């Protein structure tokens, strides 16, 4: 397993930005994958939900009751750039931009700030072995 992925998965708290209440969307599947693999503490970031798949949901990373260490991002690239700025401000250590969420600007900002970044097309669902 890639060292960046090992570092990301080493410890929580974890957050999933772009967590979805729709079970067909990747934002929901990634959240369920964390649950299936016992990765805790875990927080869902979705401004329109209080809970997703039994996981507490918050409007933003800043609203989570403890600073997430590792954050998965499943958002459009222009939103990812804003998420990266928020993550930097909060002192998040690791980011995993799921396939389709990455942008060169977001990657560069995160790396310049010293965050661990996974944005190479690696997918948490494949790495941890998601099951429907």
Describe the 3D structure:
With 132 residues, this protein is an alpha/beta fold. The chain has one domain (3-128): Rossmann fold. 35% of the residues lie in helices and 19% in strands. It has a seven-stranded mixed beta sheet with strand order 3-4-2-1-5-6-7, with helices on both faces. The radius of gyration is 13 Å and the shape is globular. It starts with a helix and ends with a helix. The mean pLDDT is 97.
What are the defining features of this structure?
132 residues, Rossmann fold, seven-stranded mixed sheet, 5 helices, 7 strands, 19% strand, globular
Please give the structural blueprint.
Elements: H1 3-9, E1 14-17, H2 26-36, E2 42-45, E3 51-52, E4 55-58, E5 70-73, H3 77-90, E6 94-97, H4 104-112, E7 116-118, H5 124-128
Parallel strand pairs: 1-2, 1-5, 2-4, 5-6, 6-7
Antiparallel strand pairs: 3-4
The strand count comes to: 7
Share in helix: 25-40%
- The CATH H-level homologous superfamily: NAD(P)-binding Rossmann-like Domain
Give the N-terminus to C-terminus distance in angstroms. Answer: 23 Å
* Percentage of β-strand residues: 15-25%
Identify the overall geometry.
Answer: globular
What CATH calls the topology is: Rossmann fold
User: Average pLDDT value?
Assistant: 97
Q: How many domain modules?
A: 1
Number of helices: 5
**Which CATH architecture would you pick?**
3-Layer(aba) Sandwich
């Amino acid at each position: 397993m890639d060292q960046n992925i090992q570092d990301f998965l080493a410890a929580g708290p974890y957050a999933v930005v772009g967590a979805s209440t729709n079970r067909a969307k990747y934002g929901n599947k990634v959240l369920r994958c964390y649950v299936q693999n016992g990765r805790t503490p875990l927080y869902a970031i979705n401004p329109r939900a209080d809970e997703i798949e039994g996981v507490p949901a918050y409007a933003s990373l800043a609203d989570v009751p403890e600073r997430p260490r590792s954050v998965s991002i499943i958002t459009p690239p222009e939103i990812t750039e804003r998420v990266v700025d928020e993550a930097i401000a909060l002192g998040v250590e690791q980011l995993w931009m799921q396939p389709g969420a990455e942008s060169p600007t977001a990657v560069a900002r995160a790396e310049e700030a010293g965050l661990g970044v996974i944005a190479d097309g690696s997918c948490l669902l494949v790495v941890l072995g998601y099951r429907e």
